[in-house]
UniProtKB/TrEMBL annotation:
Keywords: Cytoplasm, DNA damage, DNA repair, DNA replication, DNA-binding, DNA-directed DNA polymerase, Magnesium, Metal-binding, Mutator protein, Nucleotidyltransferase, Transferase. PANTHER family: DNA POLYMERASE KAPPA, DNA REPAIR POLYMERASE UMUC / TRANSFERASE FAMILY MEMBER. Monomer. Its EC number is 2.7.7.7. This is DNA polymerase IV. One of its GO terms (molecular function) is damaged DNA binding. Belongs to the DNA polymerase type-Y family. GO terms for biological process: DNA repair; DNA-templated DNA replication; error-prone translesion synthesis; SOS response. It comes from Pseudochryseolinea flava. It is found in: Cytoplasm.
Amino acid sequence: MEEVPSDKPTLRKIIHIDMDAYYASIEQRDNPEYKGKPIAVGGSPEGRGGVIATASYEARKYGVRSAMPSRRAKELCPQLIFVRPRFEVYKEVSGKIREIFSRYTDLIEPLSLDEAYLDVTVDKLNIGSAIDIAKLIKQSIKDELHLTASAGVSVSKFVAKIASDMQKPDGLTFIGPSKIVSFMESLPVEKFFGVGKVTADKMKRMGIHTGADLKKLSESDLTRYFGKSGRFFYKIVRGIDDRAVQPHREIKSVGAEDTFPYDLKETQYMVEELEKLAATVHDRLEKRNLKGRTITLKIKYSDFSQVTRSQSFPIGTNDKDVIAETARQLLMATDTEAVRVRLLGISLSNFNLAPTIKGFEDQLYLFTDDDL
């Protein structure tokens, strides 16, 4: 019998996994005295400087959030416990989470230590259901690592990522093809990828509060108001997102930065910190066998203003002394008198990367809501 062509769109099965309060949850897991208590990873116990990396859910009830200044976090939650970060531990646990992912698919795109996209259109164990795979992954993380994760399941990266945030912590949200249009129309504009506070405020002044409002504007109007992002907004609000999960993302930069418990006022201490950062960056470059042609220095001052300075070379380097000395020279080229520095960072970019081998061609199949 002749096969009848289908007019249904070709769609992927995408899972977005996002660990719950990742750094804080690891600290509570490893330190029983922190369980059930409001803790913040990073920042300063005295509230004199630094910003927190993440907060436990107990602290979030008081309004404490990541990237919040320590002083403000302490004001909101006087009993807040500040914990020094253990990034090597977080990285090690992230590797174990990645191993759990790889049981089901090799199409994994890490976004950070605690979140990743998975394409399970074709899964290794022939389970077939993305929802079931998400449940199995969440249960394995809970049983083996004693942590919780939230998952979003859909047919595109954007919707899956939004879905994973809808029932935190320990949630699982599925948004099928038939629900995407209405979901996008009801979504507040600040939830759209690429819409920060400034853009959201601009949209609201224009009377754009939801995806439905955004959908009323033409592509040319959105481009005129929001530049290149306007084209993305035009597509995404209509559920058009054909971005593939990229298991081999190109590394664009390698760096390290540190927020200090106390603001630095003396240049000699800033230089000492730069030497430590240069050693860290050197180690990270060595592990990846990378050499960068551009060295960038990042400085954040006590008033939260920020500057960057860069120096490029004709050939790549990963030499620790070259990185440290270049960063020092870039620092001295700024105004170091009467300033208070709360953060320093060094990064290298413009790598001479070898061509990557093209992976498997995207395998697309036809789905209804029930198939996922």
